[in-house]
Amino acid sequence: MDQLYREAILDHYKHPRRKGHLHEPHIHYHDTNPFCGDEVTIELKVENGVVIDAAFDGRGCAISQASASMMMEEIIGMPVEELKQWGKEDVLDLLGIEIGPVRLKCALLPLKALKAGLWGLDEWPE
Fold first, then answer.
1. Distance CA 55, CA 72 (A)
2. With 0-12 CB in 10 A as exposed, 13-18 as middle and 19+ as buried, what is 94?
3. Has domain 2-120 been given CATH number 3.90.1010.10?
């Protein structure tokens, strides 16, 4: 089963989903992992407290970029208040494999950017 998840991670790394930029995003947040140099930018469009579109851009290892790709696919249609409660286990469930302590920061970088962006939004666009 781990092999299946590893293949999915490599597929998301080689063929990322929702990579790019949104036109006039409501949320835009960039973050880096200074230890390894991974970078990720998260962009979201939100209406009535629900994510209606999502994209990411960045560079880095397969884990950080696959995590961002998988997360962007997963969060469309989700309420922002629910996403604010997301944690490490939600990301690890998406990846589906055990991540060691060194790679954990890579896997969680997109989540860190997502949550920072979500908490920075003061009011919902109508």
1. 6
2. buried
3. yes
Per-residue pLDDT of 22-46, as tens digits, reads 999 999 999 998 888 999 999 999 9
Q: Please say whether the beta carbons of 109 and 38 come within 8 A.
A: yes
Q: In Å, how far from its chain's centre is CA 111?
A: 5
Instruction: Indicate the pTM of the whole model.
Output: 0.85
Q: Residue 57 corresponds to which tokens in the numbers above?
A: 């851009």
Alpha carbon of 53 to those of 3, 63, 93: distances in Å? 30, 22, 22
Domain boundaries, the chain: 2-120
